[in-house]
Amino acid sequence: MKNSKLKSFFGILFTAFFAFIHTSQAQSPIAADQIESLVIKYKSDIRGPYKDIRWFCTDGSIRQPKDPCPENIGPGVQHARYKDEVVALGKSNHIYLGQILAYTSIDELWDTDHNHSRLKQYQLDKYLRLVDDGWINQKGQFYRGSVQVEDEEAWGINFYKSILSKDAVVADNFYFIRQSLKDIPHNGDDNVAQLMRSESKVVSDLYTPFMDLRTKIHVSPKSQIFKK
Asked: How many C-beta neighbours within 10 Å does residue 126 have?
């Protein structure tokens, strides 16, 4: 089996596996072949599983991408919203495609009632994106502004502060939590990452075709982004 076919197989296996284990828990679950069709469609969509980009303000209001949250209601975060089909899939099958941490509460990702399914799906998604050229975000990985790495890292720091403050949770899930450290961003920006973003902006201003790579650098400023 060729590598590309093997990678696609793992992606289909991912969705089929979670469709199977959650079918008995969901109301009117979507069939595995329908989920496979969604994955195929999103892989070729320039926005992937996302619908649009919005500002999410502290007071719960949602604003247009060029209309940031005003100071009088506090700071906000900007990221993509999921397509309606993706939201419906989460409700019917407990399958979450293209998860954005800043769009998720800590309890939702920890997902105790489903044996931490959402966090496991997040980890599998990260792996598939690495080995299958973005997987569900094969085209959407260049959707500028869909994910803000600074907000994801800030979320990750708060997540671990919350989880690691509970001795019983750590004792019962030590290995699982340790493994999650490889996938949930939590280190914060360093000087090298900031320099990479700054230099990539200069290059893209001078050479327009570099913009896609600049977007990828902004989302994931590390050496792996240059690997085929």
From this structure: 15
HSE of 208, CA atoms in CB hemisphere, 13 A? 0
DSSP string, 72-106: GG--EEEEEEEPHHHHHHHHHH---SS--GGGS-H
* pLDDT tens column, 115-166: 999 999 999 999 999 899 899 999 988 888 899 988 999 999 999 999 999 9
Strand partners, 76: 57
Q: Residue 214 is which amino acid? A: R
SS3 call for 155: helix
What are the residues facing 63 on neighbouring strands? Answer: 55
Q: What are φ and ψ of residue 58, in 5° steps?
A: -60, -35
Residue 113 to residue 120: CA distance in whole angstroms: 13
Separation CA 40–CA 65 (nearest Å): 28
Among residues 132, 121, 131, the alpha carbon closest in space to that of 21 is found at 121
Q: Which of 175, 201, 180, 208 is nearest to 110 (CA)?
A: 180
Largest interatomic CA distance in the chain: 58
**Cβ atoms < 10 Å from Cβ of 2:** 7
